[in-house]
Recover the amino acids of this structure.
């Protein structure tokens, strides 16, 4: 007896149409698979549609004795333009049989090899375009790869040149094709009766079809009028005969397949190259290995056909990309024997005549095949030896069986060639280092809004590259070291300042250093570390300012870190390093600054001075930086004046008449506030939540972060305006040549600059305080400032606070701006699950508003939490999704138990986890146990999400255990969360013996406490068995938990 296939409940008449996002159906199907499991069904258009998202049922569907290709509703619509072409023909359709048998030899190894020269010609046009546009021109990755692949299939298959690289706009065929595919997808979801009301869409649809047919007819007429002996696909169709029947293809069949080749032959390959580029740029070690493979095999001369067969890692990168992001995201299968079929050993019935859509993005990430890191880009698993060991149905991006993609060899040769040529000739980097992948979907998928920069390796010019591409190899790379950077025009001793920064702290330090260097007679330039790959200057000092993020480099420093590890020598480079880190990450504290410092020195670079460092957890990063540059850096550069006068080098500001202009740009997106809620507001604590409607195409996973770019409060902005005597609509212009992240060379409202660009509430540094002593003649004020500087580490006073407390300080406005750090993004754990609504993401936060020590009637206000508190539904905020480490996500096996320990707002990611588990239970999935330990102060006032957790506990999604620090008698005598873990040791032992995964979210003190309790429980368990281990052995056991990824934490202060 079969079971009912699960799926979401539908609505009368419309079924499940509202469960599907028409702009991103694949993302919707993916979320439904997460909720309902590896097989589910939807009611659309009055019919059941079945979906498979797991390897086990998919492996049965690929059995050609039981199932065959089914033409899904979307492909039926594509038949309007491509007819009975190879991709859209129904099973057994005569046109398909003739075309398949006729064309199969044309895709054999020798014909594909014969296309190499023409592929090379088109790829060379891409290379030359990038070289001539220069390293500072943003490249639309998918746009240029679409030009590449369209021109390649056109010239190789149809002997036609679209000359896409000579056009500003893409060829009209491309626009018509894309619009046609989008509308085909839209039409599948409309009732037939409704289609007549879409008159304009129908006209545009027919016009696009006519344009594609006219292009095909033009190509066919030209070949018939001018016969050729070229062995291309067009001739195979025009003069070829079916080896079985002797028939030739009709003109209609030829044109249908020409359109099919132009669509399928370029759209999916462009997506494959775009996704591969993205993954390589996000994984510098893979990028560097791929580039080194090309250098080793190809050298500096032209890429030849034989080279493409000797690049196994390039091929592995393409395979791994297509595993993660199959550009044709799925295909349909249907029973082939005229009767019902079953899946999963007879568990689920598939009625005869029904279609099953195979969701490749989920199938090819099945942890049962690829492990817990199935969502990670790891090309090594796709090297030939490993690839051949995979189960036969685990990798099917080109389809399966007789209806699999006939053009696979063409696409593969084109992809390997293009990647080899690009990596040989360019260093690539993302235009936005923080870019997170989001998808543009037609019937295929591509990355949306993906831009990068391409810098010719060795600074070769377009003409030099042209000689290489067409036969002239270089004997050696040029050594003209240049770094793309912002720089002042004034003369002086050149100095290069490189930064690696995610949140803006190190970038702000770099701009500050550049400003001070200019005042000391240097000519500074500022750039990201990644921009210095293969171009580290030897003719000037290089100052490196960078941070570590859980032991990893910043997004705009990852390629640099990878590169220096493989470079041979840095002889002639003179450098100094300053690093930022957080002491909570003990094992990786300052890992990246230390690595850069040691690697450069080990490879013959000259260290100018000892490495500087700051622990951001202590709040003294600016003082630490000031001390390092004054006491170490300037003396090492021969600038001996270590006074605070360089702090008085303010921005050159011109005050303009009041008007209203706004021109903000940030690497974040606007999201609409959906709702806000007050969670608790007693005992001085104010916990709240905010929910945002995400920008189209943005996705996340439970456990990820949401970054927020805040605004200062209107009240504090008014204080600045009052202090400097500005009207609210006063405008300022920061003149060209100023080293700053503020808008330069344009007029901006002063209130906008103050609210958006600078941290008005950030504590003043010791150097700030001492600098202000030079701005007053009043001895009492000087003495007060010197006293503040003595105790600056304990002070929360901002520059504004000090100016208000001491009105005799005469501080110019430009100087005031230069004393302030730039506005940084803040990171919050997402507290919602996308299974509830993938377009919404929530965060949980506690409003920071505390009395300021030593300052009567003043409060220290957290910039972001007070900004979030002010937000109201309907307002817009600037946010970005930040992916967390893959280990800080729910186990891929839903039956694996978990233990979660948190305190305060550290509950956020676990609220998301439990919400997701509840949704899976509602979808019919069986889950392992989940223990949630929550530390808070008082059961009457401090419980967050108590009602929801109680509801989910009844559902079986979680077991909740509280620890109340002020009423431990109400929590089994447990004062803190780690104490409650110990008191529930029997439960903990049970789930841990079943391979439970442990998650920690809270302060470093909580993390340390849970660690010690875990070690204690382990030791006690050993004693029960009569075993004893030393403290060192127990510590080793705990370290192995982390290595095995059974223990993962997100700690903060």
């Amino acid at each position: 007896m079969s079971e009912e296939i699960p799926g979401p409940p539908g609505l009368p008449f419309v079924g499940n149409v509202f469960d599907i996002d028409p702009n991103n159906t694949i993302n919707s199907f993916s979320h439904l698979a997460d909720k309902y499991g590896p097989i589910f069904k939807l009611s659309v258009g009055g019919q059941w549609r079945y979906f498979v998202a797991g390897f086990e049922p998919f492996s049965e569907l690929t059995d050609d004795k039981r199932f065959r290709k089914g033409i899904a509703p979307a492909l039926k619509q594509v038949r309007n333009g491509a007819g009975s072409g190879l991709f859209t023909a129904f099973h057994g359709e005569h046109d398909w049989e003739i075309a398949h048998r006729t064309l199969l030899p044309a895709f054999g190894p020798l014909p594909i090899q014969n296309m190499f020269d023409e592929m090379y010609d088109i790829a060379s046009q891409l290379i030359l375009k990038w070289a001539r546009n220069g390293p500072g021109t943003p490249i639309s990755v998918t746009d240029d790869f679409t030009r590449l692949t369209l021109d390649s299939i056109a010239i190789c298959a149809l002997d036609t040149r679209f000359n896409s690289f000579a056009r500003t706009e893409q060829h009209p065929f491309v626009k018509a094709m894309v619009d046609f595919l989008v509308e085909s997808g839209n039409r599948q979801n409309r009732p037939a009766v409704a289609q007549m009301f879409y008159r304009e869409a129908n006209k545009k649809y027919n016009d696009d079809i006519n344009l594609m047919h006219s292009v095909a007819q033009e190509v066919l007429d030209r070949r018939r009028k001018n016969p050729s002996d070229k062995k291309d696909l067009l001739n195979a169709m025009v003069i070829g005969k079916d080896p079985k029947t002797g028939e030739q293809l009709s003109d209609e069949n030829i044109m249908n397949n020409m359109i099919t080749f132009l669509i399928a032959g370029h759209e999916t390959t462009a997506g494959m190259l775009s996704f591969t580029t993205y993954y390589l740029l996000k994984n510098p070690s893979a990028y560097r290995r791929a580039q080194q493979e090309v250098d080793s095999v190809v050298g500096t001369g032209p890429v030849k056909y034989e080279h493409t067969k000797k690049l196994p890692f390039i091929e592995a990168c393409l395979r791994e990309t297509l595993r993660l992001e199959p550009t044709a995201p799925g295909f349909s299968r249907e029973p082939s024997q005229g009767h019902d079929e079953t899946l999963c050993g007879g568990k689920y019935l598939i009625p005869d005549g029904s279609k099953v859509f195979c969701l490749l993005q989920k199938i090819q990430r099945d942890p049962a095949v690829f492990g817990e890191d199935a969502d990670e880009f790891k090309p090594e698993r796709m090297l030939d030896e490993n690839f051949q060991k995979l189960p036969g149905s685990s990798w099917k991006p080109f389809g399966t069986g007789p209806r699999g993609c006939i053009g696979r060899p063409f696409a593969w040769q084109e992809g390997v060639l293009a990647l080899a040529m690009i990596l040989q000739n360019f260093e690539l980097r993302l235009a936005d280092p923080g870019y997170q992948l989001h998808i543009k979907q037609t019937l295929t998928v591509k990355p949306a809004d993906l831009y990068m920069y391409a810098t010719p390796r060795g600074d070769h010019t377009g003409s030099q590259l042209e000689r290489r591409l067409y036969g002239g190899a270089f004997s050696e790379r040029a050594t003209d070291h240049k770094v793309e950077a912002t720089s002042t025009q004034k003369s002086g001793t050149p100095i290069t300042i490189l930064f690696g920064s995610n949140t803006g702290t190190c970038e702000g330090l770099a701009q500050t250093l550049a400003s001070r260097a200019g005042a000391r007679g240097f000519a500074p330039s500022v750039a990201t570390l990644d921009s210095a790959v293969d171009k580290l200057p030897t003719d000037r000092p290089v100052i490196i300012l960078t941070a570590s993020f859980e032991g990893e480099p910043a997004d705009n420093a990852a390629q640099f870190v990878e590169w220096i590890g493989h470079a041979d020598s840095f002889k002639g480079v003179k450098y100094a390093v300053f690093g930022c880190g957080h002491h909570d990450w003990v094992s990786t504290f300052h890992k990246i600054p230390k690595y850069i410092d040691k690697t450069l020195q080990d490879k013959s670079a000259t260290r100018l001075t000892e490495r500087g460092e700051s622990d951001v957890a202590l709040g003294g990063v600016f003082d630490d930086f000031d001390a390092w540059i004054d006491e170490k850096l300037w003396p090492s550069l021969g600038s001996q004046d270590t006074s605070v006068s360089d702090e008085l080098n303010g921005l050159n500001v011109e005050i303009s008449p009041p008007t209203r202009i706004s021109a903000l740009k940030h690497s974040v997106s606007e999201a609409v506030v959906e709702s806000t809620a007050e969670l608790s507001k007693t005992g001085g604590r104010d916990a709240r939540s905010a929910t945002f409607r995400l920008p189209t195409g943005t996705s996340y996973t439970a456990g990820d972060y949401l970054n927020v770019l805040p605004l200062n409060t209107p009240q504090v902005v008014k204080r600045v305006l009052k202090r400097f005597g500005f009207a609210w609509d006063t405008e300022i212009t920061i003149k060209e040549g100023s080293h700053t992240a503020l808008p330069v060379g344009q007029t901006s409202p002063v209130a906008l600059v103050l609210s958006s660009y600078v941290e008005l509430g950030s504590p003043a540094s010791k150097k700030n305080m001492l600098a202000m002593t030079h701005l007053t003649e009043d001895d009492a004020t000087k003495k007060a400032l010197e006293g503040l500087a003595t105790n600056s580490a304990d002070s929360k006073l901002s520059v504004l606070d000090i100016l208000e407390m001491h009105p005799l300080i005469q501080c110019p406005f430009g100087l005031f701006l230069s004393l302030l750090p730039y506005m940084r993004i803040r990171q919050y754990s997402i507290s919602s699950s996308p299974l509830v609504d993938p377009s919404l993401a929530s965060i949980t936060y506690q409003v920071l508003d505390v009395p300021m020590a030593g300052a009567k009637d003043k409060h220290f206000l957290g910039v972001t939490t007070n900004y979030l508190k002010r937000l109201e539904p309907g307002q817009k905020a600037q946010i970005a999704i930040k992916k967390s480490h893959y280990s800080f996500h729910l186990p891929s096996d839903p039956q694996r138990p978990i233990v979660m320990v948190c305190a305060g707002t550290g509950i956020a990611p676990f609220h998301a986890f439990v919400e997701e588990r509840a949704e899976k239970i509602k979808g019919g999935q069986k889950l392992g146990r989940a223990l949630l330990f929550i530390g808070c102060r008082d059961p009457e006032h401090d419980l967050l999400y108590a009602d929801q957790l109680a509801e989910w506990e009844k559902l079986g999604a979680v077991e909740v255990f509280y620890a109340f620090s002020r009423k431990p008698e109400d929590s089994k005598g447990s004062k803190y969360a780690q104490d409650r873990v110990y008191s529930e040791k029997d439960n903990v032992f049970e789930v841990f013996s079943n391979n439970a995964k442990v998650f920690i979210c809270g302060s470093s003190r909580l993390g340390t406490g849970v660690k010690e309790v875990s070690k204690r429980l382990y030791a006690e368990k050993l004693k029960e068995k009569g075993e004893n281990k030393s403290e060192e052995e127990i510590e080793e056991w705990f370290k192995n938990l982390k290595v095995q990824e059974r223990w993962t934490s997100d700690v903060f202060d």
Notes: The chain has 35 helices and 35 strands. Residues 472-482, 657-666 have pLDDT under 50 and may be disordered. The first strand starts at residue 39 and ends at 44.
